[in-house]
Amino acid sequence: MAVARPRRVARGVELFPARTPTLPPATHTNSYAVGEREVLLVEPATPFDDERRDWLTWARAFEGQGRRVVGILLTHHHDDHIGGASFFADELGVPLLAHPATAALLPKIRVDRSLADGDVITLDGTSPMRLAVLHTPGHAPGHVCLFDEEAGTTIVGDMVASEGTILIEPVDGDMIAYLAQLDRLAGLSAHVALPAHGEPIDDPTQLFRRYITHRLAREAKVVAAFASVPAEGAGLDVLLPVAYADTPRLLWPIARMSLEAHLVKLVREGRVARTNDGGYRLVA
């Protein structure tokens, strides 16, 4: 299916989807150009030469429109979001911006400006845009979102998607933090959310709440799965077919990571304990 690009999706925001090695069903990662006169580019994602050429053509065209690219922002460190980071920054001669936790996970990429929760990025224009930086860990330690309160627009990276789902896995992920940050995003009452994968999301508050409900419903299935295993506990491979019985077997490798993330959360909350053989048991 043809992908329309670039196109305006919100006040002062253009979307440019580019092909990336991302998780199916997604095939592209959305980049965004934010700003009317000064332009911030978000998600330098693609590693593919043909897509990079098109991306650069898009980015360089702003100069002919009387606009100037002032930086490139990384929402987080995953490969399908940073595949062109250094290349694009060098070609355009602009700084890379990221949270310190993202920079620490990308030692081969030079991050020029650190972002912290509560920072404000101001972009000059007829009506200057003020983008609040929100540190939203959970999917990744240094994940950030951007919120334009005046327009009610939030760029949400991989916090939610309108295509596929969001994987919370036990290495980079933190289920407790993720749920807390979804609740925080819901509290913004944004008019539109712009995800890294899929179409813009109208009424994002409803979607943020639905994601929370879905995760907690899956957590309940994980807890219920312990009724089907020995009292002394069981490992991931025993719990997985029970807790994810409603999930196609083809997706079980990904579901296994999500299951472990749920169990890590339950252990931290004291509802589940680790066993001596590396499994898990329900705490009475």
Describe the protein's architecture and organization.
The protein has 284 residues and is α/β, with parallel strands linked by helices. The protein folds into two domains: 7-202, Ribonuclease Z/Hydroxyacylglutathione hydrolase-like (Metallo-beta-lactamase, Chain A, 4-Layer Sandwich); 225-282, no CATH class. It is 32% helix and 24% strand. The chain contains eight helices and 15 strands. The strands form three sheets. A seven-stranded mixed β-sheet has the order 1-2-3-4-5-6-7. It has a six-stranded mixed β-sheet with strand order 8-9-10-11-12-13, with no helix packed on it. α5 (175-186) runs antiparallel to α6, α6 crosses α7 (236-243) and α7 crosses α8. The chain is elongated, with a radius of gyration of 20 Å.
Oligomer: single chain
Low-pLDDT residue spans: none
- CATH topology-level name of the largest domain: Metallo-beta-lactamase, Chain A
In the CATH hierarchy, what is the architecture of the largest domain at level 2?
4-Layer Sandwich
How far from one another are the termini?
A: 52 Å
Q: Hey, roughly how much beta strand do the residues contain?
A: 15-25%
- Name the shape in a single word: elongated
Query: What is the overall number of helices?
Result: 8
E-strand count: 15
Count of domain modules: 2
